[in-house]
Write a structure and sequence with these properties.
Strand content: 35-45%
Number of helices: 0
Number of strands: 4
Shape: globular
CATH topology: SH3 type barrels
Largest sheet: 4 strands, antiparallel, barrel
Helix content: under 10%
CATH class: Mainly Beta
Number of domains: 1
Structural class: mainly beta
Radius of gyration: 11 Å
Distance between the termini: 20 Å
Order of helices and strands: EEEE
Length: 71
């Protein structure tokens, strides 16, 4: 099964473990891992990744979806 696409809003769920790139890290590509608290992008698709707020308050665009939320 292919990995979920981080550019599609339906692939990103609150509670999922993801890697995000923060605005200040866009040039270096440094990623931060965390749990999605809130989805900030309203569009169904974004070419650079869906913008989310992690549980620690960090905001960034999803680059990789590591694990889906538990039911």
């Amino acid at each position: 099964m292919p990995a979920p696409d981080p550019r599609i809003r339906m692939s990103v769920r609150p509670g999922a473990v993801v890697d995000v790139v923060q605005k200040q890290d866009q040039k270096t590509g440094r990623v931060t891992r965390g749990v999605v608290q809130e989805i900030l992008t309203n569009a169904a698709f974004h070419p650079y990744g869906i913008k989310v707020r992690l549980s620690g308050g960090i905001v960034g665009r999803v680059k990789t979806i590591i694990g889906s939320p538990r039911p």
